[in-house]
Amino acid sequence: MHHVVVERWSRRSSPLHARDARAKLGALLAFLVAISTTPPQAARAFVAYSALLAVAIVSARLPFQGLLGRAALVLPLSATFAAVTWWSGDPARAIALAVKSFISGLAALLLVATTPLTQLLNALESLGVPRPLILVVQFLYRYLFVISEQAQHMRLAARCRQGLGLDRRSRFYAAAGALGVLFARSWERADGIYRAMLARGFSGRFSPLAPARFGARDFAFLCAAVAASTAIRLAL
Amino acid sequence: MHIPDGFLGPAVWATLDLVSVPAVGLLARKAQRDLEDRKIPLLGVMGAFVFAAQMINFPVGPGTTGHLVGGTLLAVTLGPAAAAVVMTAILAIQAFVFQDGGIVVLGANVFNMAIASVLAGYLPYRLWAGSGWRSAAIFAGGVLSVLTSACLALAQLLISGVPMPRRLMLVSLGLFLVSGLIEGAVTLAAVRAIERLNPVWIRSPKDSGSRVLGAVAIAAVTLVAGGVLIASAAPDGIWSLVGKLGLTAQTAPWLHAPLADYQVNGLESAWLRKATAGLFGLVLVYVACFLTGKFIARQRSI
């Protein structure tokens, strides 16, 4: 798992990929707020939201099935809650719960599948999210796969060495030891990263290769998305 | 538990977003002051470590394994403010990249799992680290952090009108308790292993308060977390208790004035009334957490 599939999608090109990340964030928020405030009985509104989302997916030129499958990750949890809600005698609310969480998840997925994470984080920073937090998220994402693979290697090595003879108590302490070693390696890696950054003259800011520009098309896209979401919410 | 979009009522997530945004801003500034610039890569890599640590399975029962959640471990190694920032970053990555948790409810998830949970998990360590109860403090921190976040999430769902039969509630509370105990044991074992490699990595608070103060503070956190849950599940319970004690006549007028029967008057729909009243409770919890944080911050500053 060198890269999540979403990251590969986000590097494609399409009209939706070309929009500024701030415009897409604003559109997503308007859409999610509209869904969240829609009463459970408004079945037609949910159909309209899905149609709107389908248009966006088509214009993003992304694999429909892949997107739906990934968005379905939320379904086990929401289906459980929906089942409980149905069981306590409120089927409309139960369906709305599952539908709302699925559509919302799909919309959020569409944002990250059409926007590289760096652009998204730069957009969040320009919208006022504190820079230390953005930097931490950047570093986290950059080293996520590195450290995860290290953990996988350690797990594999432990399995090879350990055999089947250990009792549960020893296995517990072995796992704690592995966790400690992973912690130590991560800490030392962070020290190395910092020294390498100093050596290369890191100024405390990642500068993007192409500065984001909020153009007329982005503005039009944002207005259209907000207007469509509001219209569905109020009219249906 | 990561709450997805569509589960919480608008009033609930909006308030928690409004609460979490300035809180995270404050914590980020505090973390930066505590740790200097040098540590920014450290926080990011430690976030990646917590992600990766979930791959290390701890055998806990026949056929079941648990893994580290991490809030308390981060708090005792990086300090509570930095730990909250790292947990926020983790939740943001989970919501945006891994579709685990919603976007508009991110504030709620951050409040539950990055702010309240980390502070609750750090509290016992803050108070007992210097005494002979150090190991107990780390264990209790792990238990409290999981219980706090789980109870808050459950309370928010209840306030938002997701129905939860009593029996299911009891089952989920039992599960929370078990996962809390696992987190406590895993955190303690991990802290000991880390300490053996290099004791410098575990921060110890400057000075520790008394055991009594610690016990009172922990009881308070437990009561608040449990209380929010009970209050949002059965608002009538409190009134029946008041009635049973025969206090209704005397206390009802002033108790009723601000939050008449847990429902603020003059609001239109039922869910809005319910949500507003519940939110008041959450704001109280927030104030409690904020004051706890302030208290910790004051104690920590040199």
Textual characterization of the structure:
By secondary structure, chain A is mainly α. Chain A has helices at residues 5-10, 15-18, 21-37, 43-60, 64-71, 75-87, 91-114, 117-126, 131-162, 168-199, 216-235. In chain A, α4 (43-60) packs antiparallel against α11 and α6 packs antiparallel against α7 (91-114). The radius of gyration of chain A is 22 Å and the shape is flat. Chain B is mainly alpha-helical. Chain B has a two-stranded antiparallel sheet. Chain B has helices spanning 10-35, 40-53, 71-78, 80-96, 106-128, 134-159, 166-197, 211-233, 235-244, 248-256, 270-300; strands spanning 58-61, 64-66. Chain B is built from eleven helices and two strands. The longest helix of chain B is centred in the middle third of the chain and has 32 residues, at 166-197. The chains are: A mainly alpha (236), B mainly alpha (302). Chains A and B meet through α3, α6, α7, α9 and α10 of A and α1, α2, β1, α4 and α7 of B.
Distance between the termini of chain B: 36 Å
Unreliable stretches of chain B: 236-243, 245-268
Order of strands across the widest beta sheet of chain B? 1-2
Number of domains of chain B: 1
Give the helix proportion of chain B (percent range): over 70%
Shape of chain A: flat
How many strands of chain A? 0
Greatest interface and its residue counts? A-B, 82 and 71 residues
CATH architecture of chain B: Orthogonal Bundle
Give the mean pLDDT of chain A. Answer: 89
Secondary-structure element string of chain B: HHEEHHHHHHHHH
* Radius of gyration computed on alpha carbons of chain A: 22 Å
- Give the CA-based shape of chain B: globular
What order do the SSEs of chain A take from the amino end to the carboxyl end, as H and E?
Answer: HHHHHHHHHHH
Main beta sheet of chain B, described? 2 strands, antiparallel
CATH class of chain B: Mainly Alpha
